[in-house]
Amino acid sequence: MSSFENYFARETWALYGFGILVIILRFGARIRKLGIAKIQADDYLMINATIWYTLLVVSINKMIFGGGSNFMTSDEEAALTTETVRERIIGSKWVFVSEQAMILTLWSLKLCMLFIYRRMTEGLKQKKLINMLFAWVACGFVGTELCLFLACRPFAQYWAVPASNVQCASYQRYEIAEFIFNTSSDIMMLIIAIPLLFSIRLPVQQKAILLIIFGMGVFVVVAAILTKIYCLVPSLITYVYLNWYFREASVSVYVTNLPALWPLLRDVFPHLKSWGFESRKASVSGKTFLSSAGNNRRQSRNRVNSKSFNMQSFPRLANIGGDSHQFLSQSQERINEMDDDMPKQSIPCTLEIQRDVTFTVEKELHDDLESGNSEHFVPQRRGETRCTSSRLESRKC
After folding, report:
1. pLDDT tens digits for 84-118?
2. Overall pTM surpassing 0.90 (yes/no)
3. Which residue, 348, 353, 336, is CA-closest to 387?
4. Cβ contact 282:359 at 8 Å
């Protein structure tokens, strides 16, 4: 075994082993979250990708440790023997298997990622772009397969030694078509995803993780370019292209599966749920507490002084269409008018429910308010209820 063969085997199987580990963790996180009966389309696509990813690592190692393929120099062709012809025929078949496995691995991962994007962009204008990208990926898959099966005619020349058609040995036309469809779809995915990333309101620490993942997506594009350089440029054609081939496939597996691991990591390490978020506490003693968001992206806390007033006369905050600050001022005016107009001696002494409430507001919850989802903002509270003497509302303890 040469040094290159030894290095190639160690690298490819290490990359494959880590990829399978990430896939297993992904399914653990998905089943933990959804249950095995409710896994989604992208999960089934990942199972399909895993099968072809496994076939890919096997086939390229068979190529390296075999007797070569039908792509030969004139000197190698002149030195052919019956034994070397048989070995090269087997090696040429493994080349075709590796190309088919690579197509099915990459396009399964692309579709898996697009389904994730579709869920992310539900209700957003970017969903139309995702649907268009679905169509482009489908066209790319069909176009790449057609090039693979039609570039070499007759088809059996793919493993003929020597091949009568140079395209059956070099795969040149197919490689160009595959490069165009493959890299164009990857670049489109990055163009759509990066603006979404910057629009998400997350702490710098959590955004940094997403940037690393998308940086790996850029590496996939670079690896695809280097693969074609080492298999198309005559002066650089070597088996090094297989290293970059499998690096491209492996990093694609990592990029597609790592985002699905985040819920599992947050369960295993609970501090990650609030990692980067500032926790602020507000203690409010009085009749009510209101937090307004509207167009203001900062937290707003309003304290209403303890005062006797009819709690039932105020509408719910969720039904207020205007500014909550305006609501507060109108409410306070109403309270003052009630105190001024009502004769004190004519009102019997009754009972009032008074509550002292402490609200703990987490910034992560407040992000729902900033995005307009005020119904999700449910502050935790603790307090006590007691009866006191009042003159507005008649109740019995």
Report:
1. 999 999 999 999 999 999 999 999 999 999 998 88
2. no
3. 353
4. yes
- SS3 assignment for the chain: CCHHHHHHHHHHHHHHHHHHHHHHHHHHHHHHHHCHHHCCHHHHHHHHHHHHHHHHHHHHHHHHHCCCCCCCCHHHHHCCCHHHHHHHHHHHHHHHHHHHHHHHHHHHHHHHHHHHHHHHCCCCCHHHHHHHHHHHHHHHHHHHHHHHHHCCCCHHHHHCCCCCCHHHHHCHHHHHHHHHHHHHHHHHHHHHHHHHHHHCCCCHHHHHHHHHHHHHHHHHHHHHHHHHHHHHCHHHCCCHHHHHHHHHHHHHHHHHHHHHHHHHHHHHCHHHHHCCCCEEEEEEECCCEECCCCCCCCCCCEECCCCCCCHHHCCCHHHCCCCHHHHHHHHHHHHHHHHHHCCHHHCCCEEEEEEEEEEEEEHHHHHHHHCCCHHHCCCEEEEEEEEEEECCCCCCC
pLDDT of residue 275: 65
Return phi, psi of residue 269, to 5°.
Answer: -120, 85
* Distance linking the first and last C-alpha atoms of the chain: 90
Sign, CA dihedral 161-156-108-129, equals positive
Sign of CA dihedral 211, 195, 204, 200: negative
Q: Are 236 and 244 in contact (CB under 8 A)?
A: no
Residue 168 to residue 74: CA distance in whole angstroms: 16
Task: Report the distance separating Cα 355 and Cα 286, nearest Å.
Answer: 7
Torsion region of 100: left, alpha or beta (phi above 0 gives left; psi -120 to 50 gives alpha): alpha
Positions of the chain with pLDDT under 50: 279-339, 341-352, 354-355, 359-397
| Nearest-angstrom CA–CA distance, 95 and 113 | 27
Of the candidates 112, 113, 62, the residue with the CA atom closest to the CA atom of residue 91? 62
**Identity at 64, one-letter amino acid code:** I
